[in-house]
Specification:
By secondary structure, the protein is mostly helical. The chain has 8 helices and 3 strands; from the N terminus they run E-H-H-H-H-H-H-E-E-H-H. It has a 3-stranded antiparallel β-sheet with strand order 1-2-3. The model has no long low-confidence stretch (mean pLDDT 89). Helix 1 packs antiparallel against helix 4, helix 4 crosses helix 6 and helix 6 packs antiparallel against helix 7. The relative contact order is 0.18. It has one domain: Rhomboid-like (Rhomboid-like fold, Up-down Bundle), CATH 1.20.1540.
Length: 223
Amino acid sequence: MIPLRDSQPSLNKPVVTGVLIAVNVLVFLFERTLAEPVQELFVLTYGMVPVRFTWSSLFTSMFLHGGWMHLIGNMWFLWIYGDNIEDILGRWRYVFFYLACGAAAGLTHLAFNLDSRIPTVGASGAIAGVMGAYVRRFPHSRIVTLLPLFIFFTTIELPAYVILLFWFAIQIFSGVGDTVTRAGVQQGGVAWWAHAGGFIVGALLVTVLERHRPYQERRKFNW
């Protein structure tokens, strides 16, 4: 299921969300200009490698991405859900919130992969925090979602809690399955537990940092 748009309007321009997207894109484009050996060294240096963990890598790793689809998927989700969280937190609180969720996601991944030598990169943990905050504050907001049906595609309008809690459940079940099947084998893949950790922290942290509610939850579209 791919979200296309939500029913919650933005009262303010999502400046921070736009800046975060721009920074992620620019870093990715810079990464792509590097020769392959240098690119690998760049990722090893600034990605989070659990076996030689550094606190700085918690933050640098969330601005790196492994490929175009990784980048586009993350930035699209951030654009859909981030503007409303920026509205209710205010810009500076939102910056802190985003970085805190990304760091929490990285620490969650670390806890389940202490011996891993594989660098972890991506903004998905921080964006999972944004999604957790969204489902906490706008559970009944309507999301227009692209739904694949075999070889066809259709759109369906669903409450945010259905889409986001379903997404969260996938992260948990996939994380459990990945942990069981890997049995200590070093291999890359999706950082399921990082997503789950970021989501939970985002849902909790938004209640602490929330400045005000500038609007009521909108449960339908104004077509």
